[in-house]
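Running this now, will post back.
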Amino acid sequence: MSGDWTQFRGPNSSGVSDEKNIPDDFGPSKNLVWKTPLPPGHSSPVLTKTQIYVTAYEGDKIMVIALDRATGRVLWRREAPRPRKEDLHKASTPASPSAVTDGSNVYAFFTDFGLISYGPDGNERWKMALGPFNNPMGMGTSPILSGNTLILNCDSETGSFLLALDKNTGKTKWRTDRAEFTRGFSTPLLWKPKDGPQQVLIAGSYKLMAYEVETGKPVWWISNLTWQLKPTPVMDGDNIYVLGWAGDADMGQQEDVPDYAEMLKQWDTNKDGLLQKDEIANPKLKKDWRQMDLDNDGVVNERDWKMYQSRKKAINAVVAAKLGGKGDMTEKSVLWRYFKSLPNVPSPLLYEGVVYLLKDGGIFTALNAKTGELLKQGRLTGAPGDYFSSPVAVDGKIITISHEGKISIVKPGAQWETIRVIEMGEDVNATPAISDGKLYIRTHQHLYCFAKGA
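Update: finished.
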């Protein structure tokens, strides 16, 4: 149902709700139903009819927390195993991926452990250790559900894979290797073709891939994406819109890098068929060593080098493409690309025929979804700063939240305009959740519930 908000960013990660009567003026002391103190964590709230699930961390502990939707009361918190502490970006936390729920049970993924499931009463149902992961930023993707199948994508510098489990037992249904992909943070989407089985779509480094949900077999793909995918794509019935931004990949920054065989001829002085750091005389390549040596084994092999080549050719863009096909659909499916003022983390929003982008500094961009034409670009007045939370749309308005906790209520359209800015007074990284006429916002200190006339 389009009103459900059971996973990151709601129905199929769209960020769009068909709820009505959502307040457009609220805050810590206005239209507040309740607020509950919580341990920190950047995961977004997910909802059942009676409960709210979030992940969090406290000291060395990582945990899943259940709250009562009506009162905000904490019903239970359960500590997950934490056998290690992996590298994280300074803006991330050990509890950044959002959980997913089937309307009763909850399924959570932690970088420092793997997957774990709890029942509505907090009883542990099953767990699966995964990793460690070779991702210098930490894992950011969230799990999703397709019927009884739990799907999780784990892209990192090495050992990337797509995993499907039976949600009731935790047993593996299939596991598909994604060795050609490096670090990725995008949450999978689901798509059902008219004449075939359901597919799961993954936006990863350089490529959007479609796999059969039941088998994990690749079906079609679109190439020429950038090298690091953080935002989650959005889609309508026929098209998908993929946003990717990564450092050193804006238009004009691309470089031609020689093939591996040529580099071996030039630098491989000990003739072992591998490149070592002390063999390379080029200062720029020495500086890029961590970008090249993906598995941290002290040498650059042919896979490492090919990934580096692709990274240097990558171009940041929003790519609009037709869904479906067989094999490489890049030339047949791409409708348009847009290259300017692209966000780093927030996912795009597709609402009433317009694609919206939200960049640091409060730069808000509206594109015609059919043509890619720039309709309007400007700053959200009164809400500069960094942005990690993705925009959502509901009841004829768009809601954005800056890291500094400034909420912009935006009137959508080709000539969008800011209606008001609300000060939360607390930092925010999570994306809001919406259901039953209520808006749920997680800050670094609290979970808030707002409703009209509260």
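The chain has five helices and 36 strands. More later if anyone needs it.
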